[in-house]
Structure formats: structure tokens, C-alpha cells
Amino acid sequence: MSAADRTRELAVFLRTRRERLDPGSVELPARRAHRRTPGLRREEVAELAGVSVDYVIRLEQGRGLRPSPEVLEALAGALRLSEDERAYLFDLAQQRPTRQAAADDEAGPLSRLVLDLSPLPAMLVNHRFDILAWNPEMAGLMLDFGTLPPEQRNSLWLCMLHPGLRGFFLDRERALREGIADLRASWAAHPDDKALAQLVDELTSGSEECARLWALRDVRVNARGRKRLRHATEGPLTVEYEVLAPLQAPGQRLIVYRAADPASQRALDAIARDC
Question: Where are the transmembrane segments (predicted)?
Fold first, then answer.
């Protein structure tokens, strides 16, 4: 991501976060409670953050400012940003050390751990969501990753563009929105990763659905949650997932699925027997 791209994205992100904020959720004088348009005014953001209105205007116009960590912290508080959104803001302003991406493309010893987690479906991905290792149960649940060309072994690419997985998520809108929000956080944290930028371009140009979700500028790093899935032969099932970050490869993520209920456990057991 170029400096100009970062500046432009910072401007749009600040503006969209301001416009989504409910004025009733912040401490503003009662005389300002009535308004015709949603969101906060620039003057109100400036007041809450303790900066000048002109400074907020220049930031939202992308006029080349690089806010200090103190100003970013004040803006994050004024805009009620989540922890993930706050980290995204700092990444865009290049006020946080870029995360180390070394060894992100190699599974190494973790590939053995992925296999040892059987019969729980598990896979290892890097910060681009490339699938580096998987066990038979994960392949049985989704598809046989080994039959795919390497450039397609990416969890977001598969969920967005692979025709065989169009109906895999029963809550497709929610699942993809969370995935794109996670991708946006990684994109900001790795501004010099050309392969990651190419993935974003491919997804947003190849899928109107992805382009729409990317434009929302949601930011969220998914650590755990629940997914409702539809398996080709076992039908609907629900899994709970955990995402673990190895200390020696912080850019990688170990994703583990567990059944959320007895019926889903029976479905996973059947999938495991067929592996």
C-alpha cells in the first residue's frame, strides 16, 4: 500500500466512523442533540478529541497529515473505536511497528500439530489467509485442498469465488462480512505486501459481493465464534471455532473447529470416518 493509499484510506475510514456514530452515545451538550443528518459533526469530533476542527477537516480530506500516537488515541476515543478498529487506525497512520511476516509462508513444525488435532477439523493459514496446512477432517468438511492449484488455496478466495462453496455458509452474509473485516485489518498491518494487495484486488474485482463488503470498512480480527455450515452429504451443522496465534510465527493462525451441538458432532464424526 503506497503512502497516498494509506492517507486516502485513513481519510475515508475516519469519515465513515464519524458518520456511523450515534450522537446520543457520546457526551455532547443537550442543545446539540437535534440534527437532520446521522452521525457526529466534524466540530463535535474535534471537541471530543481535543483537536482543532481544521485538523479534523484536513485529516478527512487526506491532506498528508501523519497524526501522532497521542492524537490517534484521542480520535479513537472520540469515535468509540473497537480495539481492532483502533489497531487499524494506528496501522494506517504507520504509528505501530509493522508486524513481522517472516516465515509466514511456511508451515514448518506446525503442520504436524495440525495433523495431531484430528479428529477436530483444523488448518493453518498465514496473514493473507493462504492455507498452509490442513488435516483430513478439514478437507472432508470443506473440500480437498490438495486438488487445488496453490494460488487457490486461500480461505477467503475459496469462500468468495469457488463455485463449490457458494452454499457452504448458511449465514453467508455474516460469515463473509466477518472475513472481509479480518482481511482489512491484515491489509493495513502489512502495507508493503504486494501479494496481499493483489488478493484484495482480485476479490473486489471478481465479486460484487466482496466489493460491497470491502466498502463498508468494517474491521475485526476474528478470534473465536460460531458458524452454521452445510456439508455436501451430512447436511446442516454448526461449529465453534478457535483461532490461535503461534508465538514463533505470529503472522500465522491455527484454526480449530468443534461441534456446537450433539447433531453437529454426529455429522463431524461421520465426516471423520470417511476421511
Answer: none
The span from the CA of 89 to the CA of 246, in Å, is 24
Those residues with Cβ within 8 angstroms of residue 248's Cβ, 6 or more apart along the chain or in another chain? 103
Overall pTM surpassing 0.90 (yes/no): no
Mean pLDDT of the 31-51 span: 78
Q: What is the pLDDT of residue 14?
A: 92
Q: What is the CA radius of gyration of the chain?
A: 21
Domain boundaries, the chain: 3-92, 110-274
For the ranges 106-110, 143-147, 165-169, the lowest mean pLDDT is seen at 106-110
The percentage of the chain sitting over the pLDDT mark of 70, rounded to a whole number, equals: 93
In a 10 Å sphere around its CB, with 0-12 CB exposed, 13-18 middle and 19+ buried, how is residue 222 labelled? middle
User: Across residues 225-229, what is the average pLDDT?
Assistant: 96
Mean pLDDT of the chain: 89
Helix (H) or strand (E) segment spanning residue 226? strand 224-231
93 within 8 A of 64, measured Cβ to Cβ? no
Q: Which has the closest alpha carbon to 31: 39, 23, 19, 20?
A: 23
Domain 110-274 CATH (choose: 3.30.360.10, 3.30.450.180, 3.40.50.720, 3.30.1330.30): 3.30.450.180
pLDDT of residue 234: 96
Question: What does the CA dihedral 111, 116, 122, 127 come to, rounded to 10 degrees?
Answer: -30
